[in-house]
Amino acid sequence: MKLVVGLGNPGPKYDKTRHNVGFEALDRFAAGSGVTPRAKFNGNILELGVGEEKTILLYPHTFMNNSGTSVRAALDFFKLPSESVLVVCDDFNLPVGTLRFRSGGSAGGQKGLADILRKVGTNDVPRLRIGIGPLPQSRDVTSFVLGKFAPQERAEIDFTLDRAIRGVADWIAHDLKYCMNQYN
């Protein structure tokens, strides 16, 4: 079983913002599945069969900075090790259009990921970072990540999200090392 966690903030106010690319990636991944989300673990989940693998998509609704609460509850319920989780999140340190699979490490300023690492108790949580930057010198981080993409960036992020969902499928079918070689 695999758990794919998309990070974002719930509600229409945050729809299509830079900070919600994790939610957008999961939406695209689940598109056409016909599966209806249900409330669980302080969020919404969808249960999908991906190839031979049962896969749970988790959208934490705890708001970004408390995402670990939802992830910890799902891990405990399904009795999954941290290696069976893939966190899909934004990264303002990477240019728009960049994907980075990593097996672990620091949160790199991503507060939702930081909360997950803290509540799971390890930095060894696989993640897929989607570039939303760079952060302009004149902008503060909060207003930037909660802002929407410029029209030319939107086209680039749409293309990147399509690549990201192929990467998620490859992570489920293969492994993280395969994805790092294909997408980084």
Automatic annotation (TrEMBL):
Its EC number is 3.1.1.29. It catalyses: an N-acyl-L-alpha-aminoacyl-tRNA + H2O = an N-acyl-L-amino acid + a tRNA + H(+). The active site is at residue 19. TRNA binds at residues 14, 63, 65. Its main location: cytoplasm. SUPFAM superfamilies: Peptidyl-tRNA hydrolase-like. It is found in: Cytoplasm. Gene3D superfamilies: Peptidyl-tRNA hydrolase. One of its GO terms (cellular component) is cytoplasm. Catalyzes the release of premature peptidyl moieties from peptidyl-tRNA molecules trapped in stalled 50S ribosomal subunits, and thus maintains levels of free tRNAs and 50S ribosomes. Hydrolyzes ribosome-free peptidyl-tRNAs (with 1 or more amino acids incorporated), which drop off the ribosome during protein synthesis, or as a result of ribosome stalling. This is Peptidyl-tRNA hydrolase.
